[in-house]
Write a structure and sequence with these properties.
Radius of gyration: 17 Å
CATH architecture of the domain at 4-86 and 127-135: Orthogonal Bundle
Helix content: 40-55%
Mean pLDDT: 96
Order of helices and strands: HHHEEHHHH
Structural class: mainly alpha
Largest sheet: 2 strands, antiparallel
Strand content: under 5%
Low-confidence stretches: none
Oligomer: single chain
Number of helices: 7
CATH class of the domain at 4-86 and 127-135: Mainly Alpha
Length: 143
């Protein structure tokens, strides 16, 4: 359902949340190393998130990426919809443009409740919620 780019971006924001909770900023290189991702991909997506006010960045020797307290309290769905588009939680599991209850694809009736559950998770979980399990060592951002 989610692209590799979107998954990478979510991991980057979770990492930033953990750093920001202690008042720190993180460089592009640091973020990329800690989530084992391409600097190019992380850089492009983080700049998009900055433009949408989902995260912040400061230039200069004491600069980097960071999240405000309000940004820490936003749902993960904000990130997903920025990267994947607003329709991500309504798309057909097989990519049909006209999939519906009256014109279903072969997996429509099984896929729809799963898609709705995933949407619920991303709308209910806040960025800071995912940071706490990483900080405590019960969840990880890399293999």
């Amino acid at each position: 359902m989610l692209s590799h780019t979107c998954k990478t971006t979510i991991k980057a924001v979770i990492y930033l949340s953990c750093k920001s909770s202690t008042g720190e900023k993180a460089s592009l290189k640091e973020i990329s190393e800690h989530i084992n991702a391409s600097e190019h991909t992380v850089g492009k997506t983080l700049q998009l998130l900055v433009k949408q006010d989902i995260i912040n960045s400061l230039k200069g020797p004491f600069g980097g990426f960071f999240l405000s307290e309000d940004q820490q309290n936003q749902p993960i769905s904000n990130i997903v919809e920025t990267i994947e588009g607003k329709g991500i939680f309504k798309e057909c599991g097989l990519g049909l443009s006209k999939c519906s209850e009256t014109h279903p694809c072969p997996i429509h009736h099984e896929y729809k409740p799963m898609r709705e559950q995933i949407e619920r998770i991303f709308r209910e979980k806040k960025v800071k919620d995912l940071c706490s399990s990483v900080s405590s060592g019960t969840a990880f951002l890399m293999d």
